[in-house]
Queue: 4 jobs
Job 1
Amino acid sequence: MTKRNTLTASFCKTVTEAGRYYDGGGLMLVVTGTGGKSWIQRLTVNGKRRDMGLGSFDFVSLTEARKAAFDNRMAARTGRNPVAERNIPTFADAMESVIVLHRDAWKGDGSEKQWRGELAKYALPVIGQARVDRITTADVLAVILPHWNDRTATMGRVRGRMKTVFDWCIASGFRSDNPAGEAVTAILPKCKPATVHRKALHHSGVAAALDAIRGSNRAHWATKAALEFVAMTAGRSGEITGARWTEIDMDAAVWTVPAERMKKGRAHRVPLSSRAMELLQAAKRHADASGLVFPSSTGKQIAGAVLSRTMKDMGLDGTPHGFRSSFADWAAECTDADRETVERALAHVNSNATEAAYRRTDRLEARRDLMQAWAEYLAG
C-alpha cells in the first residue's frame, strides 16, 4: 500500500535541494534548482495518467494541497475530469466574457455600465467567485429573493442578465442547464412592478424651460445646446449626445442617425427645423477633433446623466426624455397631424408587421412641417 502523508510542514518549508518529494496519493512537492517550490498531483483520469499543478508552496500550504489532492481523486473516481474542470470560469469571469462579446453591439456605454453596475451590486457578492458549473437555482434565488418585492423590475433585469451569462456557459460547454431559467420564473412570487413614467413637462411649459436653460451660466454650452436640440428634435438623449457631424446634411437640413445608434436598430432621418439649424450653426463654431456635434468640455461624449442632472440642478420639472412626451401631447392636442407621422417623428417602429410591410415611407416632408410648427410653438 502506498504510504500517505509522508511530508511535514517543517520539511516543506526548509527543503532547498532540487527534486520531487512525494507525500502519497499522487501528491508531490517539486523544488527547482532556483529554490522555487510548487505542488504537483499525479492522478488517473479516464484511464490516462495526468499531472496537474495545485499552486505554489508560497500560497498553498501542505494541508491545503492534501485537501485539493483528495478532492481531485474523488472527482476522478466518479468519472469527472478535475484537470479540465480547472479551466471552468467563475461567474465573475463568465460575466466579463459575455460583456466583451456583446460590447460592440451595445449602443453607447449605457448597457455595459448597467450590466456591470447591477450585477456587481446584487450578483457578484453572492455568486461572483463561484465556479459556473457549481451554481444552482438556489444560488440564483439567493441573489434575487432578498430584493424581489422592493426592486422587482431591477431584479427581473438581474435575473435576465444572469440567464444570458449561463446561456453563454452552456454554449461554451461549461454546464448543460441554466439555473436562472424557467425554474426561477416559476418559483418567484407574482409581483407586478409598478410602471414609473419619466417626468415630463406639459408642452405649454417647455418654452420657459428652454429659456431658463439658454440663460444658465452654470452649464457648459454643449450641455445647454444638446438639451435644446433634444426638445427640438424629440430625440432620445443618447442619440443627441452621440451625434456626429458626419451624420448631418446641412444643405438638406436632415440629420440621419445610423442604425447602430438607434434603440430599434433602424436608421432614422430627422428633419431639422430652422431653430435646430441655428443650434447646429452655433455648434459649428465649437467643432473640435472629436467629430461630435455637442462635445463635452473634455472633448468626449456628454454622459446621459449630465443632461438630467442639469435640469434637476436648475429646478426644472421633467427630464430630457420627457420632452418627447411633451412633443407627443402637443401634436395630439394642438395639431391635426396623423398618428403615423407623430410616431415616425418619435422613431417608434410599427408593431404591426403587416402594416409595416406596406408603409415603408418615413414621411420626412410631413414630419418636417410638424417639427417646424413645434419649433415655432416653442418660440412663442
Job 2
Amino acid sequence: MITPEEARTRAENNFRSGLNCTQSVVEVFAAELGFDPKTVMSIALPFGGGTCRMRETCGTFSGIMMCLGMFKGIPGGDKDVKDDIYKDGQALAERFKKSNGSIICRELLGLAPLNSTQDHTPSSPVSEARTREYYKKRPCPALCGEAAAIFAEYLAARKKEAELE
C-alpha cells in the first residue's frame, strides 16, 4: 500500500511530467485498485483544469472522486453502495476544503468568481505550456500531492477498518 508521502511525491512528479491534475492523482492509485492505468488515464483526461479548463471542480479533487469510485464502486445502481460513496465523498470534500479552502479550480487559482452579473467567457481550451513561469504561478503540483495524500490516508484507514471486521 502506498503511503501518503509516497502518493504526494508521485502525484507532484506526475504533474511536473506533463500529466493534467486529474491524471496526476489517479495514476498513483489505478493499478493498486485493480484498474488498467492507461484506461483510467484516458477517462481522467477531460477532468483537468477544472473540467476541460473551465475552472469548475478542481481536477485534483475529481481525481480523488475517481479513485473513490475505483475503490468502492460496483456496476449497477445499488442504493447502499451509492449512499456510502456519497457519504465518503462528502467527507473527502470537507477534508480537501479544510486543507485548501475550496474544491473549485478558479478559487484555488485566485481567479475571479462567477456570478450572475458577470459576463464570463470560458477559459481558452488550449492548455498552457509548462514553463518555469507556469509552475511559479500555479499551486497545481502541490494540490496534486495533497489530493493524493488525502486519498492514501483514506485508503489506509478503510483497509485497516476492513482488517478489524
Job 3
Amino acid sequence: MPSDLIHQYMRIDHLPQMWCPGCGNGVIMRDVAVAIQELIEDPDLHFNREDFVIVSGIGCSSRAAGYLDFNSIHTTHGRAIAFATGIKFANPKLHVIVLTGDGDCSAIGGNHLIHAARRNMGLTVIAFNNNIYGMTGGQYSPTTPNGERATTAPYGNVDRPFDIANLATGAGASFSARGDVFHARETIDIIKQAIQHKGFSLVDVYSVCPTYYGRKNRKGDAVDMLKWQRENLIPTARYYSMPEGERAGKKLIGILSINDYPEYTEEYAKVVDAVRKKGKG
C-alpha cells in the first residue's frame, strides 16, 4: 500500500493490522481507500472527505472501519446496515459505506440486507466474502460452497450457498456487482461506480482466507488461492468474449445489474414535504 495512502486515510496508531498473513481483507480495505481517494481527488466530482461515513459490524472484515481514518462506527453483529440506514436518514447527503463479511451480512444480518435493497436505501455495501467465519473459529457461512469443509462441517457442508450479489439484485438493489482481491484495479473501479450510484449498491468482493478456509479445504497457501482467482474469476469484457464452452466453472466479476429505481430517502423527503405543505394550507 502506498505510504501516502496510509498516512492520508489510515489511523496509523491502529496499525499494523491484525489479519492473518495472506488474508485478502487488507487488499479490499486498500481498494476501498483508493476508490475514495480517487473520487476525492477528481475535481469534476466534488467529493469531500468529511461526507464519507464507514460503518461495520462484527467479524474479520469489520475491523477495517477502525483502520480507515474517516467518520466511522463499529456496530454489533449483523446490524451494520441497520445503523447505516439510520445515518443515511439523519443526513441523506452523506456517502455511507458499509464494510461487512459474508456471515455478517447474509446470515444474522440477512434481513437488513434484503430490506435495505428492497427500499433502495442510498448505501454502498462492500461484502468481504471469504466463504467462512474466520474470526470465530472457521465455522461454515452462508457462502461456503456445497461440499466444502469447516469446523462446523467436518464432513462437508450440505447447504446450498448464497450468491450475495444475485441475492441483492433479487431483493431490489439498484446496483449489484462482484469483485475479487486478485483483480484489484477492476475492483477499485467497481467500488467507485458503486459509491457514485444513487440508491442501494452492493459489491460482493471475493477475498481469500488461507488460515481457515484454505487450509481446511486443501486450497494451498494465499498465492495458490490468488492464482485460482486469476484463472477462474473473469472480468466482464473478457468473460463475454470467451466461447461459451470455456465459461464452464468460471465466475463473472464486474457489474451485474444497474437500475434507476427511486432512492428511498428522497422519496421519504417528498412525503414529509407534502405533509408540511398540507399543514400550512
Job 4
Amino acid sequence: MSRRTTGPEIERLIQLLAKLPGLGPRSARRAALFLIKNRERLLVPLASAMAEARDKVTVCSECGNVDTIDPCTLCTDPRRDRSIICVVEEVGDLWALERAGAWSGLYHVLGGTLSAIEGIRPEDLSVGPLIDRAGQGGVKEVVLALNATVEGQTTAHYITERLKGLGIATSRLAHGVPVGGELDYLDEGTLTQAIRARRPL
C-alpha cells in the first residue's frame, strides 16, 4: 500500500497534468514538482495564462480554428486566397501548415476522421459545414490535407464523393507525407513539398 506524500492540492495538480498528451503519472509528478519549485517564474504566469485562455479563446464558426476572435484571424485576413480551402483533421494540423508557411488559402478543420471502430460518423465531424462553404460560390479547389492513415483515406474519399457535382476541383497532399504519418509531426520542408506537389483526385 503506497502512502500519499503530498497534500490533495498537489495530488490534483499531478492528476490533471497526467491527462495531458505525452505525460504519464511519473512525468506529471516531475512537471508538477518543477512548476512548484518555480512558482513565481512559471506556475503563477501559467495559471494566469490558462485562466485567460479559458475566458477568451473560442472556436471559429467558419473554419474551426481556435482564436480569441470569431471569425478567426486567418478567416478575416484579406491576403488569403478565398478560392481554395485546405481541409485538415485537427487544429494542430492547421498550425503545422501555418508554421511551414506552405498555405495561403483558407482552412477547414474537420475535428477528426471517420472511424467505424470508434463510431465516428460524418455527422460527428464538420463535413456538412465544409460542403456548405464549398457550395456558396467562389471556391475553386478543396485540398484534402488529411493524415495518411486508413481513416484519413476513408474520410478523403467520402468528402470527394460529397463534393462531386459542385464543379470544384479536389486534390490531396502528395510527395513527402509518408503512409501512417501525421501532419503535426512533419517538418516544414516536407509539408511545403506536400502542398506544392498535391494532385487531383
